[in-house]
Specification:
CATH superfamily of the largest domain: SPOUT methyltransferase, trefoil knot domain
Strand order of the largest sheet: 2-1-6-5-7
Number of helices: 8
Distance between the termini: 35 Å
Helix content: 25-40%
CATH topology of the largest domain: Alpha/beta knot
GO molecular function, one term: tRNA (guanine(37)-N1)-methyltransferase activity
Bound molecules: (6-phenylpyridin-3-yl)methanamine
Number of strands: 9
CATH architecture of the largest domain: 3-Layer(aba) Sandwich
Strand content: 15-25%
Main location: cytoplasm
Number of domains: 2
Family: Belongs to the RNA methyltransferase TrmD family.
Domain tRNA methyltransferase TRMD/TRM10-type: 1-225
Subcellular location: Cytoplasm
Shape: elongated
Order of helices and strands: EHEEEHEHEHHEHHEEH
CATH class of the largest domain: Alpha Beta
């Protein structure tokens, strides 16, 4: 899988070389390329934004600069993801869908966002006929300073699903928050008593049927409490 990001803050993506994702790059499972949006600004002061038509607060990112940055990345079979608080909510099932992609491009906006004609332009038949799909995605109902951190969240959730990225693939099948919506049960390890709090007896019993029942009930109670 090739993942590219377009951003005015390339340094946000330094963590992609760390840990599991760094190893996945070395082994060739993953390839990351980070593009500096400002290098595509050819105007006087290398501006990437301007005031909004219709007035109002803040600045909007220039479509000309985004077009220059994105055009060369729009090869056949590409998922273009635009991070925006107004997008479709990212969840585990969306992570699973994107984990089947061969090429994902994250457009990371700043300020009040990207001129909406960028989304419209790449959402036309010219691109869809080449299996280029545009997705507006949000990781949750809060406003960030820009799309960079949201794209890091998505990259971590998506890439850990790729064969060979996780050390232990069993942790994918018995997932804390799997695609069926099952929530996680509480976990315990040694010692059996810590600061006078004992691990639930049933977990020490070796009765795997009863342990499974207890965990299902505990997961439900926890999910209900957190609603
Ligand atoms: C903020 C461009 N759902 C999280 C999220 C994603 C993107 C942005 N904010 C929140 C954002 C400013 C400019 C994108």
């Amino acid at each position: 899988m090739k993942i590219e990001t377009v951003t005015i803050f390339p340094d946000y993506f330094a963590p992609l070389s760390l840990s599991l994702l760094g190893k996945a790059q070395e082994s060739g499972i993953l390839e990351f390329v980070v593009h500096d949006l400002r290098s595509f600004a050819t105007n006087n002061h290398h501006a990437v934004d301007d005031t909004p038509y219709g007035g109002g607060a803040g600045m909007v990112m220039l479509p000309e600069v985004w077009g220059q940055a994105l055009d060369p990345l729009m090869v056949d079979e590409t998922d273009l993801i635009i991070l925006t608080p107004a997008g479709k909510r990212f969840d585990q099932s969306m992570a699973q869908e994107f984990s089947r992609s061969s090429h994902i491009v994250f457009a990371c906006g700043r300020y009040e966002g990207i001129d909406d004609r960028v989304r419209e332009h790449y959402n036309t038949e010219t691109y869809s006929s080449r299996n280029i799909r545009v997705h507006e995605v949000s990781i949750g109902d809060y406003v960030l300073g820009g799309g960079e951190v949201a794209s890091l969240v998505m990259i971590e959730a998506i890439t850990r699903l790729l064969p060979g990225v996780l050390g232990n693939p069993e942790s994918l099948t018995e997932e804390s928050h799997n695609e069926d919506g099952y929530l996680e049960y509480p976990n315990f390890t040694k010692p059996a008593v810590w600061r006078e709090i004992a691990v639930p007896e049933i977990l020490l019993s070796g009765n795997h049927a009863e342990i499974a029942k207890w965990r299902a009930a505990a997961a439900n109670a926890r999910a209900k409490k957190n609603l």
